[in-house]
């Protein structure tokens, strides 16, 4: 559970530390707004991703892909946003599938935490692989990081692409099929 009051106090201290007046009209409510924002964008800590992966039986054993899932997360190194899209492919095992929206919910749960893109990619793949007992999983995430765009090297337009490949998706033909279906229309 996020401690709003503690965040408000910390934000007020940051405002003072940078030379601002936290009692100035435009800043009076800022600590409350920031605390509420953190509660929202970091809500993944209070959610168990596995609760979203409900299994049901469907006679289907081919690849399922949910692509272009928007992601918004916070870099744990600088607490700045990174954003982009996730693509998730899996091959069901024993005719056990999950709802398509459940895949997007898993992505959201992990994105709504302080994150590294590399870790988040692995977490999503592992959760789907383990909970669905899938034959294979591939997760590809493409994101822009404000820590690289607005500070440091300041490389506007740069993207970071990460992937996690599990099970039969590691086989070259299956991997290539998934990548083609994910990127094919571009």
Automatic annotation (TrEMBL):
<comment type="pathway">
    <text>Cofactor biosynthesis; 7,8-dihydroneopterin triphosphate biosynthesis; 7,8-dihydroneopterin triphosphate from GTP: step 1/1.</text>
</comment>
<dbReference type="InterPro" id="IPR018234">
    <property type="entry name" value="GTP_CycHdrlase_I_CS"/>
</dbReference>
<feature type="binding site">
    <location>
        <position position="78"/>
    </location>
    <ligand>
        <name>Zn(2+)</name>
    </ligand>
</feature>
<dbReference type="GO" id="GO:0005525">
    <property type="term" value="F:GTP binding"/>
</dbReference>
<comment type="subunit">
    <text>Toroid-shaped homodecamer, composed of two pentamers of five dimers.</text>
</comment>
<dbReference type="GO" id="GO:0005737">
    <property type="term" value="C:cytoplasm"/>
</dbReference>
<keyword id="KW-0547">Nucleotide-binding</keyword>
<feature type="domain" description="GTP cyclohydrolase I">
    <location>
        <begin position="7"/>
        <end position="180"/>
    </location>
</feature>
<keyword id="KW-0862">Zinc</keyword>
<feature type="binding site">
    <location>
        <position position="147"/>
    </location>
    <ligand>
        <name>Zn(2+)</name>
    </ligand>
</feature>
<comment type="subunit">
    <text>Homopolymer.</text>
</comment>
<keyword id="KW-0378">Hydrolase</keyword>
<dbReference type="GO" id="GO:0006730">
    <property type="term" value="P:one-carbon metabolic process"/>
</dbReference>
<dbReference type="InterPro" id="IPR043133">
    <property type="entry name" value="GTP-CH-I_C/QueF"/>
</dbReference>
<keyword id="KW-0479">Metal-binding</keyword>
<dbReference type="GO" id="GO:0008270">
    <property type="term" value="F:zinc ion binding"/>
</dbReference>
<dbReference type="GO" id="GO:0046654">
    <property type="term" value="P:tetrahydrofolate biosynthetic process"/>
</dbReference>
<protein>
    <recommendedName>
        <fullName>GTP cyclohydrolase 1</fullName>
        <ecNumber>3.5.4.16</ecNumber>
    </recommendedName>
</protein>
<dbReference type="InterPro" id="IPR043134">
    <property type="entry name" value="GTP-CH-I_N"/>
</dbReference>
<dbReference type="GO" id="GO:0003934">
    <property type="term" value="F:GTP cyclohydrolase I activity"/>
</dbReference>
<dbReference type="Pfam" id="PF01227">
    <property type="entry name" value="GTP_cyclohydroI"/>
</dbReference>
<comment type="similarity">
    <text>Belongs to the GTP cyclohydrolase I family.</text>
</comment>
<dbReference type="GO" id="GO:0006729">
    <property type="term" value="P:tetrahydrobiopterin biosynthetic process"/>
</dbReference>
<keyword id="KW-0342">GTP-binding</keyword>
<dbReference type="InterPro" id="IPR020602">
    <property type="entry name" value="GTP_CycHdrlase_I_dom"/>
</dbReference>
<dbReference type="InterPro" id="IPR001474">
    <property type="entry name" value="GTP_CycHdrlase_I"/>
</dbReference>
<keyword id="KW-0554">One-carbon metabolism</keyword>
<feature type="binding site">
    <location>
        <position position="75"/>
    </location>
    <ligand>
        <name>Zn(2+)</name>
    </ligand>
</feature>
